[in-house]
Amino acid sequence: MPRPDLPPPPPPAHLRAWLDQTAIRADRARFLGELERLSLGTGRLLLLWAVSAVFALGWSFVGMALMAFEEGVLVEALVGAVFLVLGAGVLVPAGFWFVWGVKRDRRVRQLLCAWAESDRDPVNDRRLRMPGRSLVWLMSSFVLCALGLWVTFGSAVGARPGADTYGEVAYLMGLGMILWITGLLGAGKAAAHYRWALRAFRPVPPAADSVAAAAPGEPGAGEPAAGAGPLAGEPAAGAATVTARVPAQERRSASQERPPLGSG
What pTM value is reported for the model? Predict the structure, then answer.
């Protein structure tokens, strides 16, 4: 299957200072949206289910081989060997396909982290924090997990001696385990992505200067509040008035004193 081209990594920090910030933010929004689609898009979910279906097909061949071996007949044993080879021929490529998907997811996650840390865009980041894609993955994976557990435990509990063989029970339990593991992988990926998005695209706190801005009707930033002391180098209000009143008070007190004895 051809591998789609991944978006490039963000430019280094020393180059971003020389580039147009509007263009950089537009590239960041576009590449983050594309990387999120490659990580949690509907096509990616269907691809995971396709790998699970291939594993189920391979396990079906293995289950038919186990049921053929239980017959104890030479012809059935030969048929079982053929089924076993077919199962291995399906399971091995499915394993390589799964490993390729894991490596690709790791590269997509690295690019997501790099572009998320390159800048901040409150409008676009708010959209990326929404749990829409993660919720679709989580709910569908939950249904798949429930179905897998029901098939696994139902086949084990409902088996009847003489009516069901060990090969049939092993085949059904294997199918249930494939479904359960697939749902568990999808749910874990959805939860991990949403948790990362909440940390990476957290709202930007307001600037300190905007918080300190004065409200209408209140003293401005450079205006002293009521009751505050005078600024440095400025005389206090009313200092001249107090100084002018002191000589007048001294004159009134001197005129009220009694004259000394023997005077006029």
Answer: 0.70
